[in-house]
Amino acid sequence: MVDHFSLAAGPRRVALYSHDTQGLGHVRRNLALADALAAAEPASQTLLITGAPSAAALPLPPGADFVALPALAKRGDGEYHPRSLSGSLARLVRLRSEVISAALGAFEPDVLIVDKVPRGFSGELEPALRRLRASGRTRCVLGLRDVLDTAPVARREWQESRATQAVALHYDAVWVYGDPAVYDPVCEYGLPASVRAKVSYTGYLANGRPVPPAGTTPPPPPSPFALCLVGGGQDGLALARSFVRSRLPSGMRGVVVTGPYMDPGHREDLHLLAASRSDMVVNDYVLDPERWIGAADLVVSMAGYNSVCEMLAHRKRALLVPRTRPRAEQLVRARRLEQLGLADLLHPDDLSSARLSGWMAGAAGAGPVRGAHVDLDGLARVPGLVDALLAAGPAQLAQIARRSSERGAVDVAV
Predict the structure, then answer these.
(1) I want to staple 320 with a disulfide (CB 3.0 to 4.6 A). Which of 96, 184, 290, 334 is the partner?
(2) In angstroms, rounded to a whole number, what is the distance separating the alpha carbons of residues 290 and 91?
(3) Which H or E run includes 45?
(4) Distance (Å, rounded) from C-alpha 128 to C-alpha 131?
């Protein structure tokens, strides 16, 4: 690799990639990072590369813009297909790969931060990574959320995707967006020594999340109210319907946020159910769920990374009803938070209006949770990690790479 990197004379340029096959979790995480970097370095320029069709509706920090990839969709069995364009999945991946390479080649980032998948969806990022590595200009970071899946599934997918080799070849650092005292993917998944050599734990990306400009999102309803969140909404009907039919504590209102991807017919059904009650309202989508979480007295929610971060930041009394298919990521996260006294857990197989009613009756008036301390300051820490990465000379990076390559023969089988 030719390494002629030097700190750019102009504004810092950061690119963030997320493959975004389901929901808005990946792009919301990258937007939080972009906002933190812009706050630390106002002149910075940020390019977010995303396949989330609803991303354009989200407010951007100053100096940031989107490149939208042709969208993928995930079926209930976990298989992918083109969301809108005709043709094969392979053809769509080639198109996405060419768009990514062109965007990164023209933008010439100082740092590229890749969310979760080191080679991109189906390897779509690899041609761009090879070019960036050959140029020697760009520092590359792999960002991992706290939980990927159950340990057996995560280990198998890491091996099948040749993730260890990709980290060794293309990446200068691996950031884990979590607190290892809660869940440590490096240990849980047995990530190899060559990956561990590049790992930093940022803490959860919770405190200091971006606030949309005034007027872009409605204010939360007056307290007291119980809030039901179903993530993007594509698989949240059962939880939302059970909540709308539940019995609320005396004097409390119920508020459901359906998410942008809920089927329009399902959303209409929820509106009709709620219309028969004076204490229940359904909102289609809000850009600022954290403010609504902060104002709520109780939260009933799926257990996606961003929702959990926002609940932890406000120490909310929460009942988590996690998604279990096609990934068990949310279930693993919810179980660990329950063990630490940070949330209550209801398995979706046990979901009913009666179970929700019983939990709300017991939780009303209980106040903030008092569970274990969790590091929630990842957004404050990331700008410093970027500074350190850019300040590292070729010798320091070569030392990390050498340690990785020396251990690589042992790591390949992991």
Answers:
(1) 334
(2) 38
(3) strand 45-50
(4) 5
User: Which amino acid belongs to residue 122?
Assistant: S
The whole-model pTM stands at 0.90
For the stretch 56-83, pLDDT in tens is 778 889 999 999 899 887 776 668 888 8
DSSP 119: T
Q: How far is residue 72's CA from residue 52's CA, in Å, rounded to a whole number? A: 8
20 Ramachandran zone, left/alpha/beta (phi>0; psi -120 to 50)? left
pLDDT tens track for 301-353: 999 999 999 999 999 999 999 999 889 999 999 999 999 999 999 999 999 99
Query: Distance between CA atoms of 364 and 30, rounded to whole angstroms?
Result: 34
**What gap in Å lies between CA 227 and CA 397, rounded to an integer?**
47
Domains and CATH numbers, the chain: 13-207+377-411 (3.40.50.2000), 225-363 (3.40.50.2000)
Alpha-carbon torsion (229, 230, 233, 239), positive or negative: negative
